[in-house]
Amino acid sequence: MLVLTRKLNESIMIGDDIELTVLAVDGEQIKLGIKAPKNIEIHRKEIYLSIQHENSEAVKIESNAIDSLNSFFQSKK
Predict the structure, then answer these.
(1) How far apart are the first and last CA of the chain?
(2) Keyword ATP-binding on this protein (predicted)?
(3) Domain boundaries, given as residue ranges, for the chain
(4) Is 70 exceeded by the pLDDT of residue 62?
(5) b vs e for 48-64, b when ≥16 Cβ sit within 10 Å of the residue's Cβ?
(6) 14 DSSP β-pair partners
(7) 3-state secondary structure of 30
């Protein structure tokens, strides 16, 4: 992990297209501004992990549905 120190209104560039700016510091909480292309999805980590979990569950359900359909059609032969 890269650790960088930034002051209020200072930025960090990620590649050529993503800029993180420290907008406010209040105790242990900071506000970050993020400039990125519209095609880049940006989520808080807990939301990102929830999306990944839901996608994983959806694939399992879809796989089970396909297996059930396959069994159904095999029994009709």
Answers:
(1) 58
(2) no
(3) 1-40, 43-77
(4) no
(5) eeeeeeeeeeeeeeeee
(6) 18
(7) strand
User: Which residue is listed with tokens 């297996």?
Assistant: 67
Q: What is the pLDDT of residues 40-49, one digit of tens each?
A: 999 999 999 9
Identify whether the C-beta of residue 4 lies closer than 8 Å to the C-beta of residue 21.
no
Containing H/E element for 56?
helix 45-75
Residue partners of 23: CB distance under 8 A and separation at least 6 = 8, 9, 30, 31, 32, 33
Q: How many CB atoms are closer than 10 A to CB 35?
A: 11
pLDDT range class, residue 5, cuts 50, 70, 90: very high
Residue 44 · residue 51 · CB < 8 Å: no
Q: Is the pLDDT of residue 70 over 90?
A: no
Tell me which amino acid residue 63 is.
S
